[in-house]
Amino acid sequence: MAILLTKDTKVLVQGITGNEGTFWTRHMLDAGTKIVAGVTPGKGGNQVHGVPVYNTVAEAVKKHGAEASVVFVPPAFAKDAVFEALEAGIKLVVLLADGVPLHDAMEIRALSRQIGATVLGPNTPGMASIGQAMLGFIPVWLADVYRVGPVGVVARSGSLTNEVCSHIVAAGLGQSTFVGLGGDPVPGTRLTEVMALFEKDPATEALVVIGEVGGTMEEEAAEMIERREFTKPVVCFIAGRSAPPGKKMGHAGAIITMGKGSVKGKEEALKRAGALVATRPAEVGRLLREALRS
């Protein structure tokens, strides 16, 4: 089992003929992803790694029944690409682009919520159901970083994910599904929405949350745990401990505003809710072992 994505999910790649789309399509195929079509306007009739290319998403959905899309397009065209996928009936969209305009991100979230679809990103590395399929650019072939196991992982940071997941594997565990939320102020999917999916997943016995300074998603997660709407063990690492107030730290959403979003505030809320909090990534594996023994 997994959440959102399995080996049977029919996937299309928007922007498949670009350099990044072509490169990562090969890796996604190698990871087991069932890529049935690609879309690049004006390039219909071509093939990339044996995958047929179409001019529109609607055509690819009609011919192959695609259910999910991973979007390799520049930020200026991201909203149009996501809207095209959603309007064609795609229910899972992974938007990788960094620098998507804030208003576009707000419209993307509004439409996806309205029609009951899931959009991950913008500014996400993607997602992977370990041992089954991958959307985006997750190095699932690294055996000392990713291994099939009982730990769900959800993160705002892509680079930190690889480090934390390596400590999960070093502790003798592995991952069920990794979900990258993205680091922008308005993510298509929020942390608690992903937690609700992990709560229902029988393959997930514990959850690792990789948060960061800024925003309120981690506090919302703490409230969800306190309400007993998420009942599995939770281990958290919040990045940005030394971030000064008002200073953006890497991600557009990683900024303390009006006194809210500090690492200290997030950690205190999570501890009150019963989550275990790591002060550095290397502690995550040990805390997971403790949580799963209790």
Automatic annotation (TrEMBL):
The keyword Ligase applies. One of its GO terms (cellular component) is succinate-CoA ligase complex (ADP-forming). The keyword Transcription does not apply. The active site is at H251 (tele-phosphohistidine intermediate). Keywords: Ligase, Nucleotide-binding, Tricarboxylic acid cycle. GO terms for molecular function: nucleotide binding; succinate-CoA ligase (ADP-forming) activity; succinate-CoA ligase (GDP-forming) activity. InterPro entries: CoA-bd, CoA_lig_alpha, NAD(P)-bd_dom_sf, SUCC_ACL_C, Succinyl-CoA_synth-like. CoA binds at T17, G18, N19, E20, K43. It catalyses: succinate + ATP + CoA = succinyl-CoA + ADP + phosphate; GTP + succinate + CoA = succinyl-CoA + GDP + phosphate. GO terms for biological process: tricarboxylic acid cycle. Pathway: Carbohydrate metabolism; tricarboxylic acid cycle; succinate from succinyl-CoA (ligase route): step 1/1. SUPFAM superfamilies: NAD(P)-binding Rossmann-fold domains (SSF51735), Succinyl-CoA synthetase domains (SSF52210). SMART domains: CoA_binding (SM00881). Residues 4-100 form the CoA-binding domain. It is an enzyme of class 6 (ligase). Its EC number is 6.2.1.5. Belongs to the succinate/malate CoA ligase alpha subunit family. NCBIfam families: PRK05678.1, sucCoAalpha. Succinyl-CoA synthetase functions in the citric acid cycle (TCA), coupling the hydrolysis of succinyl-CoA to the synthesis of either ATP or GTP and thus represents the only step of substrate-level phosphorylation in the TCA. The alpha subunit of the enzyme binds the substrates coenzyme A and phosphate, while succinate binding and nucleotide specificity is provided by the beta subunit. Heterotetramer of two alpha and two beta subunits. This is Succinate--CoA ligase [ADP-forming] subunit alpha.
